Amino acid sequence: MQFLIAVGLLCVVWAVVAAIRIAADLQKRGVPVSFLWLRLMVLKYLHEYARLTRDETGRVGPLFYHYVVPLNVALLIFFILALAYWA
Questions:
Q1: Residue pLDDT, tens place only, 9-34
Q2: Is residue 7 within 8 Å of 77, Cβ to Cβ?
Q3: Which pTM was predicted?
Q4: Residues whose CB is less than 8 angstroms from the CB of residue 25 and which lie 6 or more positions away in sequence, other chains included
Q5: Cβ of 57: how many Cβ atoms within 10 Å?
Q6: What is the DSSP string of 26-70?
Q7: Of 1, 17, 25, 66, which has fewest CB within 10 angstroms of its CB?
């Protein structure tokens, strides 16, 4: 049980770091980014990053998956823990 909690928290931290790196990458490419509003604008920045990298290379950049995959794993772990708690 504690292992799942630790993995879930690690996934959340991983996604936060990926979001910060996506914002920094967008800023480096000349896209205006507000780190103050990052929590609210992260999906917009994620979409913009995916569009820019797809236009440049024909594929979505790796930071996109570094944000999406850990959040999905954390969500799955949350559901597993919730089922274990109420079962």
A1: 999 999 999 999 999 999 999 999 99
A2: yes
A3: 0.90
A4: 49, 61, 63
A5: 9
A6: HHHTT----STTHHHHHHHHHHHHHHHHHHHHSS--HHHHHHHHH
A7: 1
